[in-house]
Design brief:
Helices cover 64% and strands 4% of the residues. It is mainly α and 251 residues long.
C-alpha cells in the first residue's frame, strides 16, 4: 500500500509540476495578454457609447455611436509585472500537482497500467470533465464581463464536473449497456438543467475580445490536460519499470 501511495504521489506531482510550468509559458502568449487588454475596459479607461466595439488585430477600438465624434482608443495596457507572472506560475504549479494526483490516483484505482498513450486518453477525459463540459454553459470570462452569481456558478460547475466524470466512467469503464445509458443521462443532465443566467446587460469588454479569450483558454487547457495525462503515463511507467537484473557473478 505504501509503495502504491508513493507511486501516485511521485507520478502525480511530477507530471503536474511539468504541465503547470508548460501551461504558464503558453498562457504568457495567449490568455494573459487578453486579460490585460480586458482590464483596460474594466477599469473604466474606455467609455463605450454604443454596441460597435470591435477588435481590429491587436488594437482595441471603440466606435462611438454619437455622430461626429472620433472613435475612442483604450489606454495602454499595463505591462505584466514579474509578481503577477510568478503568482500565475505558482497557481498553475499547485493546480497541476492537484490534478496530477487526481489523475494518477484514478488510473491506479481503475487498475490500468501506466503508459503514455493511456495517460493521454485519461488526460483527454480530464479536459472533457473539468474544462469542455463546464464551458458549454459557463464559458471562460475575461475581467469586465457580465457574470451570474458566483455561488450559483460554482455550484453548477461542481455539478457538471461531477456528473461528467461519473458519466464518462459509466460509459468507458463499466462495460454494461444499461450503465452506459445511465452515463449518457449523467452527461446530459447539467445541460438540461441549464447554467445560471448572467443577465441581459452586456459588459464593457468587446465581444470579439471575449470570444478570443474563450478560444485561447480552451486551447491552453487542452494543452495542459494532454501534457498532464501523457506525463502521468510516462512517469508512472518509468516508476513501475522493474530494475534491471544484476549480471551473474562468474563461478
Amino acid at each position: 500500500m505504501l509503495s502504491m501511495f508513493r507511486r501516485v504521489v511521485l507520478t502525480g506531482i511530477g507530471a503536474g509540476l511539468f504541465a503547470g510550468l508548460l501551461v504558464t509559458f503558453v498562457q504568457a502568449f495567449t490568455t494573459i495578454p487578453l486579460i490585460v487588454a480586458a482590464e483596460v475596459y474594466e477599469t473604466g479607461d474606455v467609455h463605450d457609447h454604443g454596441p460597435e466595439a470591435r477588435l481590429d488585430g491587436s488594437l482595441l477600438v471603440l466606435a462611438h455611436s454619437t455622430v461626429g465624434e472620433p472613435a475612442a482608443l483604450p489606454g495602454e495596457p499595463e505591462p505584466v509585472s514579474l509578481e503577477r507572472r510568478l503568482s500565475t506560475l505558482v497557481a498553475n504549479l499547485v493546480t497541476g500537482a492537484g490534478f496530477g494526483l487526481l489523475l494518477a490516483g484514478a488510473m491506479t484505482l481503475a487498475g490500468h497500467g501506466f503508459t503514455p498513450q493511456r495517460g493521454l486518453l485519461w488526460g483527454i477525459a480530464g479536459f472533457a470533465t473539468f474544462t469542455l463540459a463546464p464551458s458549454l454553459g459557463l464559458a471562460p470570462e475575461v475581467p469586465g464581463a457580465v457574470t451570474a452569481d458566483l455561488a450559483a456558478r460554482q455550484a453548477w460547475w461542481l455539478m457538471t464536473a461531477g456528473l461528467t466524470a461519473a458519466g464518462l466512467a459509466l460509459i468507458l469503464l463499466s462495460g454494461r449497456s444499461l450503465l452506459a445509458l445511465l452515463g449518457i443521462v449523467a452527461l446530459a443532465l447539467p445541460h438540461v438543467i441549464g447554467s445560471p443566467a448572467a443577465g441581459i446587460h452586456g459588459g464593457a469588454v468587446p465581444p470579439e475580445l471575449a470570444a478570443e479569450f474563450v478560444s485561447a483558454s480552451l486551447v491552453s487547457q487542452a494543452i495542459f490536460w494532454a501534457v498532464l495525462g501523457y506525463a502521468v503515463g510516462w512517469i508512472g511507467q518509468r516508476i513501475d519499470a522493474p530494475a534491471p537484473d544484476r549480471l551473474p557473478q562468474p563461478a
